[in-house]
Amino acid sequence: MDSDELKLAAGSYSRRVAEPEAEEDQSPPSIRGRDITLTLRLLSGREVHISINEDATMAELRRYIEKTLALPAHLTRLYLGQDQVNSGYDSTLAQAGIEDEGVLTVVSVASEEFEEVTLEGFGQQLLPARLRKVKLSGACAFWRHYTFRDALLGDKISIRCVKQAFSDEEWAGNLVKEIYLLQHFKHENILKLLDVPPAFEDFNDICIMVEHMDIDLASVLRSSQELTEEHCQYLTYQILRALSYMHSAGVIHHQLKPRVVMVNKNCHVKLTDFLDALPANAVHFDDGDHNRWYRAPELILNQDWTALKLSGACDAWSVGCILAEMYRRKPLLPSRDAITHVQSILKLLGAPREEEREWVTNQKARDFVAGCTLPTSGPDAWTASLGASEAAQDLLRRLVVFDPRRRCTCQEALQESYFQDWSDPEERQLDRSAEPVDWAHLESVTSRDKQRQYVRQECHRRHPEFFEPKT
Does the keyword Ubl conjugation belong to this entry (predicted)? Predict the structure, then answer.
């Protein structure tokens, strides 16, 4: 979706995030027809009577049946007499031949039909027959993104594909981690894994099905879309909720930036891209020099993760940078390399006191920080030029803090007055993972053979009718 198509009108979104997000019915209530009565008859002989508007679409009927009978829409077939109802998602009941006091036989099937689909730039892939390709929506260094539409419900679905996924052991390990984490996470602000379609016998390519989101936050920030204080609050609130949940599961995102914050028209947020996620307290990891503009100072200056534990503080820093960018409409700390990045941080915040830099154990790094005498307007003055409320400035001064030990956590940030209109005790209960991620299991999937077997077993778990896993 192009950035100029996204319209985040203040007040047009609800506090709660709907799962999944349905295509909205744009017709005015005044033109809706009368309610009609239908009988849903199951093969067991059970009958359920429902009332639904005669102008409802087939998608609305299928959702109603799914909710009433607790039967997944994609595994449900509807019959009028001996004829299966195959009308499209946007067909009205009348167009589908369904009338008042009609009887629909509801048949639940064990598995859905798949068919081979040719994906541009990727090749052949088995996908559910109910999906209709819309377009190739993008490509990056790792994934090719395709948009499909569910012919039963009308929802858009994203297909992410990787060719030669197992050609590199490290890359394959990150893919396994992405799939594992996506299916472990159960939070409304984290992208949902919908399926891992069955793979061919000697597969080397991977496809996954995930929720469709309209656009990423980086595209919004580059656009002419106005962001009000309310927008900034709601977007940041959801990012922090997702991170708070991840941290409770022992997962550090580690590469948070606007590009991995997905947004839809109703301002609902989903975090994605967990290829570089790390376990809390990780000691050995290759941090590289990625995502520099949003990287916390400890990810650049610290070389001893036994003394300073890796924590969610680095994600909290990134949130602060993103929030400041929402007000500035340009990055807070652009830099060309690690050295100029640290210099930009010190110019923004001022030179840290001795006790604020004692966590920097590398002597060369400590001398560099201590020797930086860059002009600054003061540690707190930088927030005044943002045009943000005092509550926003207070939050930024707690997130963008040089010393990670003094930086507020994502959970603490949610309690700030900036979010007083959004904070909900019931939601806070949902921001804790039921169980931590089993990093030991992930770390045991090391060789390419094990990585391929893991994905194959995941396909088998979801689609046992296609193939048996290799032993």
Answer: no
